[in-house]
Amino acid sequence: MSEQHQKPIIGITLGDYNGIGPEVILKALHGNHLNKQITPVIYGSMRVLNRYKHLFDMKDWQLHGIASIGAVNHKLVNVISCFDDSQTTVEPGKVTPEAGQAAFECLQQAVTDLKEGKIAALVTAPINKHTIQSESFKFPGHTEFLAERFESTEYLMFMVSERLKIGVVTGHVPLGRVRSGIHQDAVSRKLTQIVKSLQEDFGVQKPRIAVLGLNPHAGEDGLLGNEEKEVITPVIEQFRKKNHLVYGPFPADGFFGAGSWRKFDAVLAMYHDQGLMPFKMLAFEDGVNFTAGLPAVRTSPDHGTAYDIAGKNIADPGSMLQAIFTALDVVRNREEWEDLKANRLEKTSDKPGREDKQGRRDDRPPREERARDPRPERTPREERAPEPAEASLEDIPLPEVPDDIPETAFITDLPEGDAPVAEQPERGPKGDRPPRRDDRGPKGQQREDRGPREERQPREERGPRNQQDRPPREERGPKDERQPREDRGPRNQQERPPREERPPREPRDQQERPKEDGAPRDNNQPRREKQRPNRNEPRPVPPLSPELVDLREAQRGLMGISEEKTTESPASKPDEPAQE
Asked: Which residues are CB-neighbours of 528 under 8 A, at least 6 positions away?
């Protein structure tokens, strides 16, 4: 796929070159940053655009002039000169008929390329509706001119933004003629265009639409007008019967004042100012004028020529940028819608194989013509042969062991006293087996040898199971002649003399304890307390070694200091100087 088909070509008309049209176009396209998504083509004049480039200090950015759309460069901003600009004088903020005529020539050539499919969409800059009037242009605005060129009678002036979308029943019509344009057919056609545009152009599959009333307070139940009862409400009921989410009529002032517009995807107003006044208050910076119902895509910024700020480099290009992006989005949404219509999937069931079952059902003859097969007769249950019983393990024959098996085939390296494996006795049924251990006692005996339960010895007289080193019960004597438990003392306790015969135990604090040096301590002497050093007293000076004493005497002799001066007087106090 070529680059031309990857990026749509968007045409942009110059508009009135004495207004802010050239300024917002250059600011929106400056730096070629939009060329990653679209290929822009300006229908205007290289002379006029270069004049504004120098005025706004855009000398580092170059435009690409071409003679026709066939020479477009997809990496640059292309400019097609649509009128003779050799004698053109740019006067920002001034109303001139030359600017109006130039705007018409740019629009005419752009619409021609749009009809021929050379460009994917058209973005129109603001024009002066008075200076553009001529023998070739007798329309109140772009919308009516495009509808006439595309021979379309079903169109809608649709003001769109990210937050709010408003369509109007009567567009550029004087207020005195608004009532004559409000009838059921007009309201129904505009509602149809809104539903279609929201689905195909903006991807809203089930739109919610609010309809405003014509009169103040929506007529006050006929007190201020009957248009709501006679015209608007019947149309709303017709759309609701067709499963469309259409609501109203709402009073315009309360509808926007309470913020109810946030609950709907679009709003249908009855006349121009009823819809555009709240729209420009809520979405003036990013609002776009979109012409719905045309076979081609056309958008425009929602502001005018703004002669009062033209040429001052203060115009905001936000609405122009949003118009370009909206045109790009609508082009892509329409392509997706056409692909869905061309490759529409057949409605199928979620259950697998339902189509095959339906096909088989269609091929069957009618029910009354089908041959009904009689049900086969069944043998009564009493006459049926009994089912064979399942074979038990005893009935399964064992394999015969041949007699010529060598003796080495048996295990013979068993410990002494054990019989070889081949000589082990055959084990019979479980009831005929001998006990596995003879010392198990009653639990190892056969159940048949135990006797009835009432003749057995009680559990409490048998003692605990597997108790070792206990004499037989018959040797223990009667239970009432045994020594009581409290007289026998604790179990496994060594023989100890009675408590009365034991020597008295000395008090624990009077027992002799060995001293640290190993000598016994005299218990009659009181325990001396451990002496702890007083931290406030000066520590004793350790004695000096003989070498240090000699060294100190030598130092005193050299310095001529007697020992009396260095010795503190015994009568002196520590805190007072010695008295001589």
From this structure: none
Task: Supply the DSSP string of 50-101, one letter for each residue.
Answer: HHHHHHTT-TT---EEESSGGG--TTS-EEEE-S--TT----TT---HHHHH
- Around Cβ 14, how many Cβ atoms within 10 Å? 29
Q: Give me the numbers of helices (H) and strands (E) for the chain, helices first please.
A: 17, 12
Buried b (16+ CB within 10 A) or exposed e, 303-336: bebbbebbbeeebbbbbbbbbbbbbbbbbebbee
For tokens 């009365």, name the residue.
500
What does the alpha-carbon distance between residue 44 and residue 125 come to, in Å, rounded to a whole number? 11
How many other C-beta atoms can be found within 10 angstroms of the C-beta atom of residue 279? 25
What pLDDT shows up at residue 161? 93
> With the CA atoms of 408, 414, 419 and 424 taken in that order, what torsion angle do they form, in degrees rounded to the nearest 10?
-70
Average pLDDT over residues 449-467: 62
Q: What is the mean pLDDT of residues 280-287?
A: 89
Whole-Å CA distances, 279 to 159, 162, 166, 391:
8, 11, 7, 92
Do residues 287 and 165 touch, judged by C-beta distance below 8 A?
Answer: no
Reported as type and span, the H/E element at residue 44 is strand 39-44
Same domain, 32 and 43: yes
Distance between CA 302 and CA 323 in Å, rounded?
Answer: 9
Same domain, 174 and 46: no
11 falls within a domain: yes
Q: How many domains are there within the chain?
A: 2
Q: Which of 133-147, 184-198, 371-385, 551-565 has the highest mean pLDDT?
A: 184-198
d(CA 285, CA 397): 100
SS3 at position 40: strand
The pLDDT of residue 76 is: 93
Q: Which domain holds residue 263?
A: 154-291
In the three-class reduction of DSSP (H, G, I as helix; E, B as strand; rest coil), residue 93 is classed as coil
Structure token pair of residue 331: 């082009």
Please check whether residues 174 and 260 belong to one and the same domain. yes
Residues 143, 3, single domain; the answer is yes
Report the alpha-carbon distance of residue 273 to residue 172 in Å, rounded.
10
- Give the CA radius of gyration of the chain: 58
CATH of the domain at 44: 3.40.718.10
pTM passes above 0.90: no
Do the domain assignments include residue 302?
yes
